Please model this.
Amino acid sequence: MSLFANAFVVFALWLPVSAIAQGLPEPRLGVDYAVIEPAQPLAPKSRRIEVVEVFGYGCIHCARFEPLVKSWKRTLAEDVDFVYLPLSSGGVWETFGRAFYAAEALGVLDESHEALFNAVHIEKSIRTAADVPGFYSRFGVDTETFKRTMDSTAVNVRIARAKQVAPRWGIEGTPTMVVNGKYRVMASDRGLEGMLATADWLIERERTALAGH
Model:
């Protein structure tokens, strides 16, 4: 079976990746972002600003987004916590989600994250879900060890949480960004860089709201 036979719906972003975000008008409610009611951050009662990217390794738009996100993360202020949340809606999407959490547990996430996107979409060396564990041997992880970690209790807990959170946030495709569990940043005619510009705008909005309390 093809790796993407049961792929989750992904957003089609028709603007080029290099679309200029500077000078964009204010983000539009219902077009560029939506309000999540009630707000459901991963870390409730925090005084920090939480930004989550819901992504999938099988999503070509997420693969194109990752280099932009990687650079953008370096610009975030000290009061912002950035978190990846792998969409784990079943099938190969859950396999990839388990791989993400297993790589994190085994200490190879930083070096493997973008590399896995490349393996899927550029090298095309991963064609089925069964190919995923062996990929991590590139980073010195024994394949059987990786499989056991993917099925570990700790990973099961995190996958269960990911499965609960995504529907509550109204996630309909990837990539999607969620700011403080309150705002869902959606794909629109602003393009990939425009999503980050919208996230920046919402981060500042949350910073102002927190300062007022």
Remarks:
- Confidence is low (pLDDT under 50) at residues 4-21.
- Residues 33-211 form a domain with the Glutaredoxin fold (CATH 3.40.30.10).
- The chain has one domain: 33-211.
